[in-house]
Amino acid sequence: MWKMSSTHEESSNMSVPSSTYSPLPPKSYTRMIRLLPDEDKDAPIRCELFNYNLSHSGDEGHLYEALSYVWGNPVTSHSIILNSRGFLITESLHTALLHLRDSQLERVLWVDAISIKQDDDNEKSEQIPLMRMIYAQARRVIVWLGEAQEYGDKALEVLGSLGRKQNPKPINENDRERCEKLLQRDWFRRVWVLQEVGVAQYISIMCGSVQINGHIFCEGLDNLKPSSTLIPRISPVSFLMKGALFRSHGEHYSTATLSIGELVSMYRSHNATKQHDKVYALLGLSSDSNSAALVPDYKLSWHEVFRRVSQHVFPKCSVGIYYGSETAIIKGKGWILGYIYSTSDSLHDSQQTFKVAFNQTCQKLGYRDKWKAEWSLQASGELLQDGDIICLLEGLSQPSILRLCADYYTVVTPVVRPKVQAQHENDNMIAGGSHSSYGLCDILLVWKISLAEDKVNLQSPSKLIDITPNCHEKFFETERRLNHTAYVLVDAVMEISKLKVSGKTALDNILSKGRIKDMDNQSLFQENNDLRSLKIAIEQALWQQVEHCYAWKEVLAVAVQDSGPYGYIISSILLQNLGERLPVSEAVVKAAA
User: Which regions are flagged for Basic and acidic residues bias (predicted)?
Assistant: First the structure.
């Protein structure tokens, strides 16, 4: 069983005298510790444990502080004195308490490893729902990054100077290297710390004896302009920390604006010792109403937890979890509405901006006139790419962002919120499922949530059978899915090529991910391409719902007779995706000859 902690590591064999803990009263009670003062910096840590009612506070609010830290190696332990008895804690926590101890005044802290009786599973289950309240109501959340090794304390000082704009000169390479090493510490990758800073009202960052304000730290990060490899690592945490300025005292339930699906996708590359925490650690940040699918239950297998949350996020889809793959296979229907291009390489206010090339389906469903062409998305561990796809799935009220991967799609994020034209700001998004059947496609999604220390990889295209060998489809399902995939590629060529050179990267990416190789797309962006015949044929195929390969017969016939680049690429798409399934007429054979 896991420990309640900022990393929620697996329980160690540290013994806890049962008499150290008295039973907690029901409901909103937890325990605080008094960290007793000592003028001798090397004196043993002494603490007193007492029950605390989170629902009661004085006129000045709650005065305790909450610690956010990484447990570290549980094998290396130190003894402290807790309620006059010996008590073992990890080296990381011991070092943090030494730096937090005052020489004259006691300090009231909430520290998970001490405040919760770690060998009592029932108590842990009761304390989980209080985690959000504990960190939201704390007078201050102290982030402990660890000791001042590898000049970590100096790096924090540099970030403080950058945040206060006290250093007008460009940062030197030594300082930059130290800062980037600090930002690679484990704290930034642990999933539980997201809630701890994501609901906090005031944050302090500590490394060794150096301490700076959380907002100054975030400003310093922005001015540092870290390397592109670090941006996905630190931006999600920075975004949550910046929100502390806008969280008023005690209003800890009013700040949740993201769904659990958005949160799981945003932070899926963060580390958790127990797989369940990939979901449960984010519930305190979620705007989802209480649902049976989202009630923490560590007795369930991870596959069942993943299945439940996937079904919650994609309510009108069928969901299968295939053991050994750690992958959800999600089958549903949806409308492809456009293609992403001009993605920003850097983040502004933890947002990545991008543009969308809308297609005819988007126009016919009435969204093209409502939505702006430039959108933004909250920072996550996986940056968007040119060629990613905007899709509205049945059952969802907001579109999703998908990435074509050979013969299926990976989920980049289940929810993206379109930028709406001013005159349509009060319009409600039509819930998926109430549209016409025009452009409705079979969509097969793969949603991956990495294991404890793994990173999700959405980059390498592989066939569905390579990802989940045990996933079996009926013949007609496979044919229909491949037909729809071919349609998306053809549609992408026709729409993205209108962007001229600004769409080249998007088209290169989507064709590459669709395994359409060795294509010179440069000629597509030139003028004087007569596409009327192809457009008519493609439109007719769309109206036939491309349920079977015969819908493409006329498109292929027109494409092979087109001596221009469009004909060559579109016929290649159809032949490479549909292969022997594609009916080849005598006219096609003659044209190809």
Answer: 1-11
Q: Name the residue with tokens 């800890």.
A: 252
- Cα–Cα distance between 332 and 85 in angstroms, integer? 59
Structure tokens at 438: 């025009």
Q: With CA atoms as reference, report the closest residue to 33 among 45, 18, 17, 19.
A: 45
Token pair of 327, please?
């992958």
- Convert the pLDDT of each residue in 300-350 to its tens digit: 888 899 999 999 999 999 999 877 667 899 999 999 999 999 998 766 667
Cross-strand bridge partners of residue 164: none
CA distance 375 to 356: 8
Q: What is the H or E stretch that residue 335 is in?
A: strand 327-341
Over residues 241-270, the pLDDT tens digits come to: 988 887 755 454 445 678 999 999 888 888
- Total number of residues shown for the chain: 593
How far is residue 197's CA from residue 284's CA, in Å, rounded to a whole number?
Answer: 11
* Contact assessment for residue 130 and residue 30, using Cβ atoms and an 8 Å cutoff: yes
Q: Which amino acid is located at 527 in the chain?
A: E
% of residues, the chain, pLDDT over 90: 44
Beta bridge partners, 335, equal: 392, 440
State the average pLDDT over residues 117-146: 89
Pick from 158, 212, 146: nearest CA to 185: 146
The CA distance from 282 to 264, in Å, is 7
Strand (E) or helix (H) holding 397: none
